[in-house]
Specification:
The chain contains 2 helices and 4 strands. By secondary structure, it is an alpha+beta fold. The protein has a single domain, classed as Nuclear Transport Factor 2, Chain: A. The protein has a 4-stranded antiparallel β-sheet with strand order 1-2-3-4, with helices on one face. The protein is globular, with a radius of gyration of 15 Å.
Length: 113
């Protein structure tokens, strides 16, 4: 029997794209960090602040975002997010995990390469 992948909910895809775009804008100092607090776990906010403190050349542009649903039983409660962005002619990768938190999605893991 071939394995079939379940499509992620549209709300997860929209959240992932929006959240990653906002993370990149905070790192580039184009958006205040306070706007990320409702979107992610508190420890991740500190990680993004550390990334923003590093000197950067040029603005980043989010390129591709892929979301893969994680089945938690009867419903999809989490998703893995893979993305790429460019800055100064270089391509960088992002990996993240989003989970249902109450009735909304929330970033719970984030790795920026």
């Amino acid at each position: 029997m071939p394995l079939t992948e379940v499509a992620p909910p549209k709300s997860a895809v929209v959240f992932a794209e929006t959240a990653l775009r906002q993370v990149i804008e905070v790192i580039d100092r184009r958006r205040p960090i306070a706007q990320l607090r409702p979107l992610m776990a508190p420890l991740l906010v500190e990680r993004v602040l550390a990334e923003a403190a590093a000197a950067r050349r040029g603005s980043a542009t989010l390129r591709r975002v892929r979301v893969r649903a994680v089945d938690c039983g009867d419903e999809i409660c989490a998703a893995e997010v893979f993305a790429s962005f460019t800055r100064s002619g270089r391509v960088h990768a992002v990996a993240a995990r989003i989970e249902r938190h109450r009735d909304r999605w929330r970033l719970v893991a984030l790795e920026i390469g």
